[in-house]
Amino acid sequence: MVEYHGWLNISQSIDGENESDKILIVNQIKEKIATAFTDGRIVTLKIINGNVMLHCGGIANHWDNEVKDVVAFFEFISTIAFGTYGVLYIRDTDVDGDNSNYFKIIRIAKGKLTEFKDGILSPCNPTIEA
Fold it and tell me: Which of 30, 41, 109, 112 has the most CB atoms around it within 10 Å of its CB?
């Protein structure tokens, strides 16, 4: 099983200035959501107080296209909106060894995706299980 949860604060620039293409970026993201996420996954995009916020979550049977699509979607957003920041938590119980007992965190900041091992909910057993 693969569980994932993520959020992004989407911004064109790091300092919040020069946000002239915000509507274009929002429309690109909406188009991607409409075409790539038609299978009932949780993906919401809202503009709140002028900030563009995205939330997503899901549970897949295996590390399949569903999970790959979400990671690729976060990467896509980071390339069109450099000021975007947020996290994607993923736990894959199908991996070998101790890794199945940990969430990994994919951090999005300044156009880059960086992977970390979670220390807040992990190790899952005994932190949240057993």
Answer: 41
